[in-house]
From TrEMBL:
<feature type="compositionally biased region" description="Acidic residues">
    <location>
        <begin position="444"/>
        <end position="455"/>
    </location>
</feature>
<feature type="transmembrane region" description="Helical">
    <location>
        <begin position="97"/>
        <end position="119"/>
    </location>
</feature>
<keyword id="KW-0812">Transmembrane</keyword>
<feature type="transmembrane region" description="Helical">
    <location>
        <begin position="12"/>
        <end position="30"/>
    </location>
</feature>
<keyword id="KW-1133">Transmembrane helix</keyword>
<feature type="transmembrane region" description="Helical">
    <location>
        <begin position="393"/>
        <end position="414"/>
    </location>
</feature>
<comment type="similarity">
    <text>Belongs to the major facilitator superfamily. Proton-dependent oligopeptide transporter (POT/PTR) (TC 2.A.17) family.</text>
</comment>
<dbReference type="InterPro" id="IPR036259">
    <property type="entry name" value="MFS_trans_sf"/>
</dbReference>
<feature type="transmembrane region" description="Helical">
    <location>
        <begin position="357"/>
        <end position="378"/>
    </location>
</feature>
<dbReference type="InterPro" id="IPR000109">
    <property type="entry name" value="POT_fam"/>
</dbReference>
<dbReference type="GO" id="GO:0022857">
    <property type="term" value="F:transmembrane transporter activity"/>
</dbReference>
<feature type="transmembrane region" description="Helical">
    <location>
        <begin position="131"/>
        <end position="151"/>
    </location>
</feature>
<keyword id="KW-0472">Membrane</keyword>
<dbReference type="GO" id="GO:0016020">
    <property type="term" value="C:membrane"/>
</dbReference>
<dbReference type="Pfam" id="PF00854">
    <property type="entry name" value="PTR2"/>
</dbReference>
<feature type="region of interest" description="Disordered">
    <location>
        <begin position="436"/>
        <end position="466"/>
    </location>
</feature>
<protein>
    <submittedName>
        <fullName>Uncharacterized protein</fullName>
    </submittedName>
</protein>
Length: 466
């Protein structure tokens, strides 16, 4: 912002604006404190959930292939034939769930190898670059393994209930199973949204590089002032601030009510897919456009006009044509983020809300890992001058991932998602006593699945004809 801030104070101005924004957010947060409801932390739900998962993982329940896996597990130490016999049998769902969580934890730890080596161990530059490439590749492998292990067993995790007789023998708490079921059934949505957060990261990466090689001039003169490329990214928060009130006050009432959670997530992923697809074809069109030619010296020799930010030749296409992908991605975030908050707040037990929000933030980290993996894979095609490279290849990869995520969400995740009332019915059918099919009661002779929280209808969003 040269007219307002001198170049010598640009860094200070950037951090000062960020600090002012955070201060404003803090003031807004504190101003609404009288509307908040204070509730003491309750660890009992988390303990019940962990205990239910532990019992489901460690109990050799069922028959057939599941018991066969537990029997062949002991043969793994008897040479190569024992290992092959063990691997030939599909592990039970509880074991696959545990292995998937282990892959997620390892991926998160491996992602810390590069910053630790750089900041703590002071590894030299060449070795540091090789370590970064190896860590990103290993993270990608672990994430793919985690999805393959977790996705099938979390769609409808009835395996958490090991059976009425086994449950009573192992003192499995039906309420703990219900809480674990409610939380685990949200994981497929979190895995699908990982592709969304990866695509969102391109807004601050490749999109900025593409933007800085468009016509950034405020008018057509060769000596016209050029606006900084990062200023266009302000459309992201501004559109979010404008679209959320418009959706809540105008669009949803016109449609008869707020759409269900899964419907809003579907529309959000579709907006993100449209944003990335637009950028793919825009980059191809930008490279085919001629470069702006301007006099380069007193002899009136013509040469390419270079950008003030990246010192790369500018194409004859206005920077405003890069506004649609930012706006589409912002609308997608405005649809998905409130839906995620509602999913992790209204569709789980009160004691597990913070855990679900932590899972939501963890998916953002995994999305950043996936984005880094895509960058590393196409690193040789992303050159300083994008006219000599293929910056659209990472965008096509992100579009393919979003297409797969959208297809999986529409055809697999959304149809199998159960509301909180439906999970209660499922758990009651699993925990029954005798032929009378009476509800399985806890120690206080209260129904194990009775809602101790506020009435569910008061927490549900009004649904329209979706």
């Amino acid at each position: 912002m040269p007219p307002l801030v001198p170049p010598s104070h640009s860094y200070f101005a950037g951090f000062a604006l960020s600090a002012a924004a955070m201060l404003l957010a803090l003031v807004i947060f504190l101003s609404g404190s009288r509307y908040y409801r204070d509730q003491k932390p309750d660890m009992s739900a988390l303990r019940r959930c962990i205990n239910a998962v532990r019992i489901a993982v460690t109990t050799p329940a069922g028959s057939g292939r599941e018991c066969l896996w537990w029997r062949t597990l002991g043969l793994g130490w008897r040479g190569v034939s024992g290992v092959l016999r063990t691997l030939a049998v599909l592990p039970p769902p509880g074991v696959r769930f545990f292995l998937g969580l282990a892959c997620c934890a390892l991926a998160f730890l491996v992602s810390l190898a590069h910053p630790i080596a750089h900041l703590v161990l002071a590894v030299p530059g060449g070795a540091l670059q090789e370590l970064a490439q190896a860590s990103v590749l290993l993270c990608g492998i672990l994430l793919v393994a985690a999805v393959l292990l977790l996705f099938p067993v979390t769609l409808r995790p009835v395996w958490l209930a090991v059976g009425p007789s086994s449950a009573q023998e192992s003192c499995q708490d039906p309420r703990g199973v219900k809480d674990a079921y409610d939380m685990v059934r949200c994981l497929p949505t979190a895995m699908v949204l990982t592709a969304m957060w990866a695509a969102q990261g391109f807004g601050d990466g490749i999109n900025q590089n593409i933007l800085q090689q468009t016509d950034m001039r405020l008018w057509s003169a060769c000596d016209a002032q050029q606006i900084p490329g990062p200023m266009i990214s302000l459309l992201d928060p501004l559109v979010c601030l404008a679209s959320i009130p418009v959706l809540e006050s105008k669009v949803y009432p016109m449609c008869g009510g707020r759409p269900p959670i899964m419907t809003r997530i579907t529309y959000g992923i579709a907006c993100a897919l449209a944003s990335v697809s637009y950028t793919c074809f825009f980059e191809q069109y930008r490279k085919s456009a001629p470069v702006i030619q301007c006099p380069t010296g007193p002899g009136s020799e013509m040469g390419p006009l270079l950008g003030d930010t990246g010192a790369q030749p500018l194409s004859q296409i206005s920077f405003m044509w890069m506004a649609p992908p930012y706006m589409l991605m912002s609308i997608g975030q405005s649809l998905i983020s409130p839906a995620c908050y509602e999913l992790y707040y209204c569709e789980v037990a009160a004691g597990l809300r913070s855990m679900c929000f932590a899972v939501n933030m963890l998916t953002w980290s995994f999305g950043a890992m996936l984005e880094s993996l895509i960058y590393r894979f196409w690193a040789h095609d992303i050159t300083n001058d994008l006219n000599n490279g293929h910056a659209e290849f990472p965008q096509f990869t992100a579009a393919a991932l979003l297409a797969v995520a959208l297809t999986a969400h529409v055809n697999i995740v959304a149809p199998r998602f159960q509301s909180l009332e439906e999970t209660s019915v499922t758990m009651r059918s699993l925990f029954t006593q005798g032929p009378e099919q009476e509800p399985f009661l806890d120690g206080q002779d209260n129904e194990a699945f009775a809602e101790a929280d506020e009435d569910l209808t008061s927490r549900k969003s009004p649904r329209g004809p979706w």
